[in-house]
Amino acid sequence: MMRITSIFFLALLAIGHIECTTYASSVAGAPDKPAIITGADQTGKYLSYLKGKRIGLVANQSSIIGKTSSVDSLLSLGIKIVKVFGPEHGFRGNASNGAVVGDEKDAKTGIPIISLYGRNEKPTKEQLADIDLMVFDIQDVGCRYYTNINTLEYVMEACAENDKELLILDRPNPNGYVVDGPVMTDDRFKSAIGIHYTPMTHGMTIGEFAQYLNGEGYLKKPCKITIIKVANYNHRMSYVLPVHPSPNLNTQQAVMLFPSLCMFEGTAINEGRGTYMPFTILGAPALKDKYSFSYKPVSIPGMSERPNHKDAVCYGLDLRNYPVSKLRQSRQINLSWVIELYKAYPDKARFFSPGRANQDISAFDLRIGTDQLRKQIIAGVSEADIRKSWEPGLRKFKAIRAKYLLYPD
Predict the structure, then answer these.
(1) CA-to-CA separations, 275 to 93, 96, 100, 302, in angstroms, rounded
(2) What are the φ/ψ torsions at residue 73 (nearest 5 degrees)?
(3) What is the pTM of this model?
(4) Where in the chain is the domain with CATH 3.40.50.12170?
(5) Which of 77, 169, 219, 324 sits CB 3.0–4.6 Å from 40 for a disulfide?
């Protein structure tokens, strides 16, 4: 009986590998080159390590093996998953940005789901007590203000404190080609959307970022990590995500524009939240006399319940067909849009949204990681000179980053 069961599992494993290899070829977009294969898809490299252990899995809807949820796939292969930990947007990825997510039980499997975006951001000692090995498998998009890297740090910290090992199933960074923006160096600008001393886009995968957190002293005690690397990948490669990483990054265009457009969340400009085109359009009612393109943000449960300028017609830029290849070629965030819309906005004193009470820190500053860019835009500093001011910090960060890369740059 044991032999038959083992053969059955091996057959499943082989079928899953064929499926995900074929699928990876389609997302790599280069049939004449080896397909990109995520760490999760390389089950042969880690399945035996999971067998016989009680597993805690940090996952969401982007956690897949082939085309199937990692939870369902690993359970079918005989792996004992005792808990699933969900980040912002929840395990199923259907909670709005910033929404508090509660603990629950998975309706399909009955496995307890612990929210790391609710009562606690870091797994507790009690939550880890019955776990032998933690596994982290979440798709990131490479920005300081995308909170998956915050969750990674909290999970690593909890594992280190409780002597638990963390296995990371690495995935490509779709914005891994760009390391750009001012580097956050002042703790005054730390917030829920930025706790690391990196540029706005760090150009690392989750596995590389974990090595960076260990190596740069973010943790009081280093976390023991094992990384299943992505096969056939380098940072310059195009990678189309097979699953939306969050509700408002629902197209590849949005994923690619996100590093440039998320900064608008700290301004009077709506960045497409409240529509089914988030992070591909920009606008505000006050720009009616400046632009002809228009749209109306509304409340969309599970995406944006309270978007900026809800139920008001916004006018501005339609970037749904913007050639994102330009961003890849330049390896830069686009700064021209925020400069253009600031110049076009009639009430400049209201362009940048207020931030913390009794502090000269705007919501824009918290996303950028400094107040310098806001002050430069207000002062009319040219884009070239703004970028020049970033260079010392970027050079220093790139030298640090190079120590932790797992893939060619």
Answers:
(1) 17, 13, 21, 12
(2) -65, -45
(3) 0.89
(4) 12-28+42-228
(5) 169
